[in-house]
Design a protein that fits this description.
About 2% of the residues have low confidence. Helix 4 packs antiparallel against helix 5 and helix 5 packs parallel to helix 7. Strand 4 and strand 5 form a beta hairpin. It is built from eight helices and 18 strands. It is globular. It has 361 residues and is an alpha+beta fold. The protein is 40% helix and 22% strand. The protein has a five-stranded mixed sheet. The longest helix is centred in the middle third of the chain and has 32 residues. The structure holds zinc ion. The site of zinc ion (ZN) has 7 residues, from loops.
Length: 361
């Protein structure tokens, strides 16, 4: 608001923009600087002092050598003020040369969502690859799912062998194999690697196109997966996921891959979580995140935490209490247990390692 007070009028005069466009520009720029500021503070400058101790200095915006750049022309459009759906199937948009009405291409589910009562929010008009895109957020109010009305609990473990493994309170498990997905990712990675070695203008362009195609494909997989999970269980289901912040996956696999691939994998898991959250909310179910600590090492039967009981070579979890199960199920079963504790009133359920007593023979 302070910035707006200072420069609103001069921007309007200098660039001949309408008032909405000026406000949109100010909003977009301040939002980008806020993000940049946050990112800077997350990566502090560090150095070793004469005693060899690491010193950290939080970075501020002064650390930027260049101002934040905007390469894609964009503008926010407020519904029914700057853009409007017309009864003839076109869309009207306010431009610097007055209001124009244009044809548009929409994804197939667009009309269904409109019929289901989803409302349109402030859209962003962007220009990319010589085309204009209108990104329209859609929202719908839902009844929040109350803890008291939960009928099912489902623990969902995300991993590599199985993209998701689930366990529910009727003791059923589902596995969605990750092998086909891993295979396809591997192929994408191989093509990317070849193009990277070439390093020509043309190969760089193709590299970008391939990355985008991979992202679209992964998003589609996640959409289908989230949809299948939500539809399989009725409303009033509590889905329990592990909190992935700061988590690295199976260390053995990590050593063999590089950071970039791991980032991509985390991104895919994070996206699945986002999709699951909104799809679950839509039908009146709930998704919670719980601490991932010991969820892959704890015996679901007796509660002992022991990494050695998980046998990677034959994919089995074997406990001293006699309990045995497929090792991919262990995580899901433990998440299910944390879900039960959540419903029982523990707002931040997590496992702690208890001392194991070994009995000498
Ligand atoms: Zn046990």
């Amino acid at each position: 608001m302070r910035l707006q007070d200072k420069i609103y009028h001069s921007i309007r005069e200098d660039f001949q923009l309408n008032s909405q466009m000026v406000i949109s520009a100010l909003k977009t720029v301040t939002a980008r600087y806020k993000t940049t500021k946050e990112q800077l503070s997350q990566n502090p400058y560090r150095y070793q002092d004469d005693k060899g101790k690491w010193q950290y200095i939080t970075k501020t915006l002064e650390w930027l050598r260049k101002p934040v750049n905007f390469r894609i022309p964009q503008c926010d459009l407020v519904r029914n003020r700057n853009y409007r759906l017309l009864s003839n199937g076109k869309i009207s948009i306010t431009t610097l040369e007055g209001t124009i009405s244009v044809d548009f291409l929409a994804p197939p589910e667009w009309q269904t969502l409109l019929n289901e009562g989803w409302s349109l929010g402030t859209a962003k008009l962007i220009r990319q690859n010589k085309s204009w895109y209108l990104c329209v957020p859609m929202s719908k109010a839902t009844e929040p799912c109350e803890k008291e009305s939960v009928k099912n609990i489902v623990g969902i473990d995300r991993g590599l062998n199985f993209i998701v493994a689930t366990a529910d309170n009727s003791n059923k498990s589902f596995f969605y194999s990750g092998r086909a997905i891993q295979h396809k990712r591997h192929q994408f990675a191989k093509t990317r690697q070849k193009l990277q070695l070439k390093n020509t203008r043309k190969s760089r362009r193709r590299l970008l196109a391939i990355s985008k195609r991979e992202n679209r494909w992964m998003s589609d997989v996640n959409h289908c997966l989230a949809k299948a999970l939500v539809n399989h269980y009725s409303a009033d289901t509590l889905f329990v996921l592990e909190d992935l912040t700061g988590i690295t996956f199976d260390e053995k696999i990590l050593r063999e891959t590089n950071q970039q691939r791991n980032d991509k994998r985390s991104w895919a898991f994070y996206q699945l979580e986002q999709f699951l959250k909104y799809k679950a909310e839509e039908v009146g179910s709930l998704v919670i995140n719980v601490s991932a600590k010991y969820t892959s090492q704890r015996c679901p039967n007796c509660g002992i935490v022991d990494k050695a009981q998980r046998h990677h070579n034959d994919h089995e979890y074997r406990c001293t209490c006699g309990y045995r199960t497929n090792d991919d199920r262990v995580g899901a079963l433990n998440l299910l247990e944390l879900g039960r504790r959540f419903l029982a009133g523990d707002s931040k359920p997590k496992f702690v390692k208890t001392k194991t007593i070994s009995i000498a023979d």
